[in-house]
Amino acid sequence: MKTKLYNYLNKPYAVILIMLIAPLFGFIDRNFTFFFGLGVIFLILKGSKYNWARFGIGQKITSKTILKSLLLATIIFIVFTFLIDPLLIKWLGEYDLSSIDDIRGNLLGYIILMFVVWIFAAFGEEILFRGYYMKALAELLGNNKTAWISSAFIVSLYFGISHAYQGVIGVVSVFLWSFVISLIFSKNKNNLLLLVLIHGIYDTIGITLIYLNKDHIITEWVQQLL
To answer: Membrane-spanning residues where (predicted)?
Structure first.
C-alpha cells in the first residue's frame, strides 16, 4: 500500500491533483491546506528514503549563500517597501494584518511568531510552493526555461490567492513577491535553502517593524512623495 501511494505521488500529473485538492481543506481551516501539502511532501520524502534533493535541497548552507540571501532579501524588501507596496496601498487599500496585529509591543508574541515564521513560513512554504509545486510543475511542463517561468507564474498566483485573508492587496502583493522569489529559484534549482533564508529574512524585517509599530511610518512617508 505504501509503495503504491509513493509511486502514485511520483506520477508527473500528481502535483496538479494535489494542488486542486489542497484548497478544499481550506473550508475547514486555511492552515489545513498548507499542512495537507506538507503531509504529501513527508510521504514522498519517506518513500524516497529522505532524498531532499527531490525538493531542491541539494546544497548546504554556506557563507556565500548567507551573504547572497541577505543581499537579495534586502533589495527585495526595499523595492516592495518603497515602491510596490505604497502604490498598491494607494490603489487597493490597506493590508488586513489582523491575524498578527496582537504582536505590536508584545515581546513574547513576537518571539513565538518568529519561530513560526522561520519554521512554517520560510522553510515550510518554500519547500511546499517552490520545492514541490513549482519544481514538479516545471518538470511536468518540459523542464525548460519556458516551463520554469510558466510554473513560477502559476505557483505565484496560487500562493497569492492563499493569502486572500490579507485582502485584495495581500493577494496582489504576495503574487508579485512570490514571482520574484520563484524566478530566483529557477536560477538556483538545487539551492532551495537560499530561498528559505531570503523568505525568513524578509519576513523577519517586516514583522519586526510591526512589533515596533513602525510598519506604517515608511509607507506613509513614501505615499506623501508619490
So the answer is: 12-28, 34-53, 65-87, 107-129, 141-161, 167-185, 192-212
Q: Classify residue 96 as exposed, middle or buried by CB count within 10 Å of its CB (0-12, 13-18, 19+).
A: middle
Sign of CA dihedral 63, 205, 135, 54: positive
Task: Give the SS3 label for residue 104.
Answer: coil
Query: How many angstroms separate the CA atoms of 71 and 214, rounded?
Result: 22
The residue-averaged pLDDT of 74-99 equals 90
All 3 cell numbers of residue 85?
507596496
Distance (Å, whole) CA 124 – CA 34: 9
Q: Say if residues 167 and 93 touch (Cβ distance below 8 Å).
A: yes
Angle in degrees, CA 100, 164, 28, rounded to 5: 85
Contact by Cβ (8 Å): 77, 206: yes
pLDDT score, position 131: 98
> Cα angle vertex 14, ends 177, 17, to 5°?
70
Residue 149 is predicted with a pLDDT of 97
Q: Which three cell numbers stand for residue 218?
A: 515608511
d(CA 111, CA 116): 9
Spatial distance between the Cα atoms of 20 and 4, rounded to a whole number of angstroms: 21
What's the CA gap between 182 and 149, in Å, rounded?
Answer: 8
- Lowest-confidence region among 83-92, 102-111, 137-146, 202-211: 83-92
8 Å CB contact between 178 and 155: yes
